[in-house]
Design brief:
By secondary structure, the chain is mostly beta strands. The chain folds into 2 domains: 210 residues; 118 residues, Fimbrial-type adhesion domain (Immunoglobulin-like). The chain is elongated. The relative contact order is 0.17.
Length: 388
């Protein structure tokens, strides 16, 4: 019995044909275009919006050996600042600056906020346009995370609207050894503690703010409506900024591309006197290691040879020398039932930090006397693990 994966590259077909080569001449007439000038302005009437973030992506599986500090899951979230131009500012250049920090309250270590799941923390960073990723921490003042020049084209209306996008990355961090995580499901759905995430959109004179530097919040409102907006989030709102929380599955280490050969032996037709007769079963087992506490892995089996008449009988691999009138069965020793190859889920047994399923495999006669043929009797099944 083999676990195997196959990749068949698409064929490359090159077609040659005879034809008449023709040359085409293109006469281009290029007219001059007028280039609009950019007019310095200032940003007013700022508001925030964001669509749902990207789905959570697993970075490090949670097993019994996952190191403290590992990023378990991560996703990106875009926060959009919408604003209107406030007319010409003369020769005075302005920038719209995105800034943020965690306010005082529950102390944070390494910019990691606690969540409702003890032992899993939350970190948020900004991917700034200068190519630097900046973690948001509990600082005395907000830190500049992004900025855009505030300018409109002279050919357009000065009342036109614009927007600036600040790209954030949310991360779930393992903060304790896996053995110290709570039992049951690990559903991260809110940030715990009294600290809040405070994000700003500020119109400032060009050069006042530098990415990564502290920003002083202006107290004036001149002209009226100039961008001094903030977006404060606490509890579940921080997670919901990206579209909601996630259940972190407790998994085991799965060795990729692992093959388990099971040698079933050599037999004669006389060893199978009637339909349904079986050979002596050969025991083997499938095992996972480094399972997280309370991980409950399940396994499914799939026959690699299509055309089932009985979902509990594995078909023999086709070849010129293949035997006929036989199949292969597997017995699950946890329930003494035949394994089915139709997507049925089977629980694995936890033993320490491992998970196993003990199995027995053997041949079974499926054909009449007229259908029997001696020959090679090989089969292959794929198995897949899930972690509910």
């Amino acid at each position: 019995m083999l676990l195997s994966m196959a990749f068949r590259p698409a064929g490359l077909r090159r077609r040659f044909c005879r034809g008449v080569q023709a040359a085409t001449w293109l006469l281009g007439l290029i007219a001059g275009t007028a280039q609009a000038e950019l007019v310095d302005s200032l940003a007013v009437q700022c508001t925030f919006s964001n669509g749902a973030g990207r789905p959570w992506q697993e970075v490090t599986p949670l097993t019994s050996a996952t190191p403290v500090g590992s990023v378990l899951y991560q996703r990106s979230v875009a926060l959009i600042t919408n604003y209107r131009y406030g007319g010409s500012s003369g020769n005075v250049a302005h920038e719209l600056v995105s800034a943020g920090y965690w306010t005082k309250g529950t102390p944070m270590s390494d910019a990691i906020a606690p969540t409702n799941v003890s032992g899993i923390g939350f970190k948020i960073s900004a991917s700034s346009s200068d190519g630097t990723t900046r973690e948001i921490d509990q600082t005395t003042k907000p830190i500049a995370l992004e900025k855009d020049p505030v300018q409109f084209e002279s050919t357009g209306s000065q009342n036109q609207r614009s927007s600036m996008v600040t790209n954030y990355v949310q991360s779930l961090i393992l903060t304790v050894p896996p053995s110290q995580l709570p039992s049951g499901e690990l559903i991260v759905e809110r940030i715990d503690g009294s600290a809040s995430l405070k994000l700003y959109a500020l119109d400032l004179l060009k050069g006042v703010a530098s990415l990564g530097g502290e920003v002083t919040i202006p107290t004036d409102d001149i002209p009226r409506g100039i961008c001094r907006a903030f977006y404060e989030l606490m509890g579940p709102a921080i997670i919901n900024m990206g579209g909601g929380g996630i259940t972190v599955p407790k998994t085991c280490v799965v060795e990729s591309y692992k093959t388990i050969p099971v040698r079933l032996g050599r037999f004669s037709l006389a060893d199978f006197p009637k339909v349904g007769a079986t050979s002596s079963p050969v025991p083997f087992r499938i095992e996972l290691s480094q399972c997280a506490l309370n991980a409950k892995p399940q396994i499914t089996f799939t026959d690699k040879v299509a055309g089932h008449t009985d979902p509990s009988v594995l078909n023999l691999s086709a070849s010129p020398n293949a035997a006929k009138g036989f199949g292969i069965i597997m017995i699950n020793d946890l329930n003494q039932q035949r394994v089915k190859y139709d997507g049925t889920l089977y629980d694995m047994q936890r033993v320490g930090d491992s998970a196993i399923i003990p199995l027995r495999a053997g041949y079974i006669r499926t054909g009449s006397d007229a259908e029997l043929k001696v020959g090679d009797a090989d089969g292959a099944a794929e198995f897949t693990f899930t972690f509910p």
